[in-house]
Amino acid sequence: MIYMKIDINIEELKNSNLGDMPHIWAEKYGDSIAIVDNNRTTYRDFDMKVTKLANIFIKAGLNKADKVIVQLPNSMFFILTCFALFKIGAIPILAVPGLREKEINNIIEFSEPSSYITTETYMGFNFEEMASNIKKDSLIINKLFIDRDLKYELRKNDNVEEIIEHREVMADEIALFILSGGTTRMPKLIPLKHCHLMRHIKLSAKRCKLGKNTVSLIILPLAHKLALYSPGVFATLSVGGRVVIKNNENLEDVFTVINREKVTVTIVVPSLVKMWLEIIENEENLSIHSLKKIISGGETLNNDIARQVEKKLNCDLIQLYGMSEGVCFTTSLNDGIDIRYSCQGKPLSLEDEFKIIDEKDNEVKYGESGELVFKGPYRFEGYLNIQNDNKDIFTEDGFFRTGDRAKVTNDGNIIIEGRIREQINVSGEKVMPSEVESYLREIEGIKDAAVIGIEDDISGERICAFILAESKAINKLFIYKKLDAMNIGKFKYPSQIEIIDSLPHTNIGKVNKKILKLIVSSK
């Protein structure tokens, strides 16, 4: 076990909540630019808009502790919406834009939100139509907000009002829900408290050396921990930096944005890093001199790619490993190159405990591999409304089971070696094979299916489905049409489909996925 001493003044956090932060930041940083998307918003303007939107929500009947699905593209309005909800004590449930009707309905059934906030259209998909259908068929959702209408109300309501109804929000109350990576058909919602998030924001800003001169480019979906607060938007704003928010409709012009806004740091997943390196390789005159740091998370970055980041992009690399359940490890800018290239670092908080255990929950020796488990000041207490699963995800002594295989170096850095569980990481989106298998088995003509993850140069991993077909009509086009009709996120679609006569099994009757991986690798 590795135990580290406390490193933060807990008294500072006892009366803190995220809803108060925009006003505190406005008093500190005033007319400095806070957020850049299609417009530029100062800290003072952002604080005023948060109060206006909070009042709009109160007038619409939102109450403290109401759960609200927020499914919006990357924009200043996403951040504005979150802080307005924090301010009135309502609780956002963050949903990535890639989720569709089936997944949203599962979330609604499981978490019972009163409201749903989304956009008109994005990436060619009509979210307003989907949300209207969901509300029409739902006995739970009673309010639907479209960002177009809320923006109109904000423009119409030019007078800054005090908050209509003061709602005391305590630091130990739930601030938001994030969907667990690798969520099954039963959604796993992670409750995050105000005090836990405040602590995390402060520590991540300190570890990544963010400050008033920081200009952070946010490309990853804001519904993810990395982009939102680890360190993301919240940590940058907390120190008076500038956030440049970009949606992923046109990634080709990202270097133009970096140069125009003089971006100093960005947060990416390895698949994006690889794409950037390829672009730099092919564009001799491309220059991004302002970029000083790249923070890579979401999956492990291999050593060769890590070396190329500092050499070809001419900036420092910070590797980050974390889960929304609470754990966060990062390398430090003070680490030597061997650590920065090959390790995922040390815990963010000096109060964290972690260890590596074997199959019997015994701690292993330094350098030996096993499952990484942790506990600490911002470890969550269990998924929403899932009692049985919550018993299995903690060890008897209270450590959270990450499901990741890791080892610890002699100097206390962790190296993540892969998953103990079957989760597939597709460009940072976590997909459980069992979920995709269940969808495939619903398709007429498919007798059985087994899904595995395969290493991919572009997306990190891709989904491969082995299909036991009862009909010759079963092919990729047929399967995609059926999945389209199920209204699930396209990132869950298998990119490779293998029709097979029979599925191999182990001696205890489970599908032998090791053999399936060998079949793919031999082709």
TrEMBL record:
All copies of domain AMP-dependent synthetase/ligase, residue ranges: 25-384
Write out the entry's keywords from A to Z. Answer: Membrane, Transmembrane, Transmembrane helix
The highest taxon in the source lineage is: Bacteria
GO molecular function (one): acid-thiol ligase activity
Q: List the transmembrane segments.
A: 77-99
Which InterPro entries does its entry note?
Answer: AMP-bd_C, AMP-bd_C_sf, AMP-dep_synth/lig_dom, ANL_N_sf, ATP-dep_AMP-bd_enzyme
Residue ranges of domain AMP-binding enzyme C-terminal in the record: 435-510
Protein name as annotated: (2,3-dihydroxybenzoyl)adenylate synthase
Q: Please name the source species.
A: Clostridium botulinum
